[in-house]
Amino acid sequence: MSHSIDYGSLMHAAMRGLIQTVLQDISEHGLPGAHHFFITFDTRHPDAELADWLRDRYPEEMTIVIQHWFDNLVVDDDGFAITLNFGDAPERLVIPFDAVSTFVDPSVEFGLRFETQSSDEDDEEDEEEDGDEPPPRGDAEVVSLDKFRK
């Protein structure tokens, strides 16, 4: 068994820390200027909390927009909770940072995408099956903003 530095996981942790810092600042001071965020997350994550009707509508992933109206943004080490308006119906969401797959601020053309990573157990199974090196783990990438443009 070889030991190596898992740069992919370290980058993901650093980028999630960046998101935590940005959201913490927004919770304390509000959104400055034209900044706004598109955040896509995995609704299947065991610690994600959302209304049943939202989970039914978005069974795999959901993109939220933090821009004009949001309330009760609370950020901690594990994730954030926020109340957003869905067709004049405020709903509280709890989103773990581990569930976030993209974070985009189109006002400054900034974006992050988190590739899914297989578990260590899956990697060990892959090694045993084919005897080759384990498959490369997902790396952090910058997101193309084109899919968020209007």
Task: Summarize the structure in words.
There is one protein chain. The chain is α+β, with helices and mostly antiparallel strands. It contains 3 helices and 7 strands, in the order H-E-H-E-E-E-E-E-E-H. The strands form 2 sheets. It has a 4-stranded antiparallel beta sheet, with helices on one face. The chain has a 3-stranded antiparallel beta sheet with strand order 3-4-5, covered by helices on one side. The longest helix has 23 residues. It is globular. The termini are far apart. About 17% of the residues have low confidence.
List the helices and strands and how they pair.
Layout: H1 7-29, E1 37-42, H2 52-57, E2 61-66, E3 71-75, E4 79-85, E5 90-96, E6 100-105, E7 110-113, H3 120-130
Antiparallel strand pairs: 1-2, 1-6, 3-4, 4-5, 6-7
Features:
single chain; alpha+beta; 4-stranded antiparallel beta sheet; 150 residues
